[in-house]
Fold this sequence. Notes:
Layout: H1 9-39, E1 47-52, H2 59-67, H3 79-87, E2 92-100, E3 104-111, E4 114-118, E5 125-128, E6 133-135, E7 148-150, H4 156-171, E8 177-182, E9 187-192, E10 197-202, H5 205-224, E11 233-237, E12 244-248, E13 255-257
Parallel strand pairs: 1-3, 4-7, 7-8, 10-11
Antiparallel strand pairs: 2-3, 4-5, 5-6, 8-9, 9-10, 11-12, 12-13
Amino acid sequence: MTEKLPLPADVKLMNMTAFVLFGVFALLLLGSLTSWVSRHPVFAVRAIAVTGEVTHSNAVTVRANVASQLSGTFFTMDLDHARQAFEALPWVRKAVVRREFPNRLKVVLQEHKAYAYWGQEGDSRLINTFGEVFEANVDEVEQANLPRLNGPDGQGPAVLAMYENLLPLFDGMDMTLEQLELSGRGGWRAQLDTGARIELGAGSVEEVLVRTQRFLKTLTQVTSRYGRMPEALETADLRHEDGYAIRLRGVTTGLVSGQKK
């Protein structure tokens, strides 16, 4: 029986070198082929399907506004850049962009749901149901009689939360809370649809609610002393420690009420 002799070291080295070179060549070839395929015109993006919430703009308009900002083929397009382009459109809160082989993009949009106007009168900003402030054409707002909220930058969620906590208290008195503002110093100021302005003071939601409840529970009793209804309220200041001060239309004397007994 013939015994197999081991390969000489130089032959082993030559075989290993050939194997490595072949591997490198194959990788280069594969890379070149992949690059060529990814850039081939046949894989150019030829369709953009837009679905989801498009209440304030139709799919055709959305595609037309964004298509010119997209570059690359199906394989090379930057999907994050594409998402940002869609989210920059008015009313669009969130966009999800996916590839659909071989040359199509699928975009699912979520729109802002306007909850209130944001800022001073005449401002074009709105705040959505998440407390996020966004720019939009206020003439496109479908809901009538939206409230107006305002506050420092980044405080949208806090202002929205305070408004939602105060709203049922005023509704229980048949009063409409039309505006709520948070000042830079942390003070809260409300305005009713009658034009009445109320200084709610600073503090946590719980602290402001306690002061407001105390005020509303005694308001009818106080206004009746002067032959007035709560609708005659002109201003109120709840920042007093043990009570509040009010001014009524047609009554020239101010008063402080609500002292603890």
